[in-house]
Design a protein that fits this description.
Distance between the termini: 37 Å
Radius of gyration: 21 Å
Number of helices: 13
CATH superfamily of the largest domain: Periplasmic binding protein-like II
Number of strands: 10
Shape: globular
CATH class of the largest domain: Alpha Beta
CATH topology of the largest domain: D-Maltodextrin-Binding Protein, domain 2
Strand content: 15-25%
Number of domains: 2
Length: about 325
């Protein structure tokens, strides 16, 4: 028994030394992670990522930053104005190809995949908005100019035979857009976020929330135009809507560039995977996330540091 105890103690010592050696290769750094505007899920989740990394990778101090959102985060990371960012999988794909809305290729690398965001098209009784087609000629708070909601609604409108020019756009944060909806200044507001989105929950405290549902025919056209999107369901219980709502969904990717070293990203990935029980408490959208989900980054190539950890952990072969 004593011999076993000594072996166990030695194993623990070696594990600590190995971890310390790995951390010794990570330079002390102040890092940022681009999220989105207030009122969505990205900022809350980004704060969780930052805190989990900071608490478990001693040389790093990570801060979540409010940004224009998914589309802007690509540029911020690509131009080394942010160290990491969270973006929808569709805009990551466009960035890797140098396709619109980008005019150059961004050599992004994925650290992990996260939850999915859904495009909430939010309205109230009396606006006359019941379907996507009803948005024509209406005033719509479409989210911040650099957010993922713009790209999402663009494809939904195109699938419906319309364009962004058919609506009167107000480019506002999700919180401000919902406030304008509540005050009657717009007829609908968009929120591209994991559910529940705090801005919509706040609306539900004083008003009956209505979400525009996308029918099967329109959804098929959306997915044909943009294969990174899929059909998702927001249960009625989330916001107290009259029924379940069919919406457009897309996965989210935490990305960086090779500006971050292999050792740094290895340590970041290790911290996220091995502290997932803490990470998932930051937002309900993460509640069903598993370590295996993190590697599903689509066509976004893994950073060498992330790939190294996932292989060692047996998450990829």
């Amino acid at each position: 028994m004593k011999a076993f105890s000594r072996i166990l103690a030695l194993a623990m010592v070696f594990a600590v030394l190995a971890c310390s050696a790995a951390l010794a290769d990570v330079p002390a750094q102040q890092l940022t992670i681009g999220t989105a505007s207030s009122g969505g899920a990205f900022y809350t989740i980004g704060t969780g990522l930052a805190e989990v990394i900071t608490q478990n990778v001693e040389p790093l101090n990570v801060t979540a930053e409010i940004t224009g959102g998914s589309t802007e985060n690509i540029r911020l990371v690509g131009e080394e104005e942010s160290d990491m960012g969270i973006s929808n999988a569709d805009v990551v794909a466009y960035a890797l190809e140098g396709a619109a809305p980008y005019n150059k290729v961004y050599d992004l690398k994925a650290i992990c995949a996260l939850h999915s965001s859904v495009l909430h098209i939010v309205t109230l009784d009396g606006t006359g908005v019941e379907t996507v087609q009803d948005l024509k000629g209406k005033k719509v708070a479409v989210g911040p100019a650099g957010g993922g909601s713009i790209n999402g609604i663009d494809f939904v409108l195109r699938a419906a035979g319309m364009s962004i020019d058919d609506i009167s756009c107000s480019y506002l944060s999700y919180d401000d857009g919902i406030t304008q909806l509540k005050d009657g200044q717009v007829d609908a507001a968009l929120v591209m976020a994991g559910y529940p989105a705090s801005s919509i929950l706040s609306l539900g405290a004083t008003n009956t929330v209505k979400l525009v549902s996308i029918d099967d025919e329109l959804m098929a056209k959306v997915i044909e135009l943009a294969p990174y999107f899929y059909s998702a369901t927001v249960p009625a219980s989330v916001y107290g809507t009259a029924g379940d709502t069919t919406v457009v969904g897309v996965k989210n990717i935490v990305h960086c560039t090779d500006y971050l070293t292999e050792d740094t990203v290895y340590a970041i990935t290790k911290a996220l995977v091995e502290n997932m029980d803490t990470l998932v408490t930051y937002h309900n959208a993460l509640s069903k996330l598993t370590p295996a989900d993190l590697v599903g980054t689509g066509n976004a190539p893994l950073h060498a540091g992330a790939e190294k950890y996932y292989r060692e952990a047996g998450l990829i072969k």
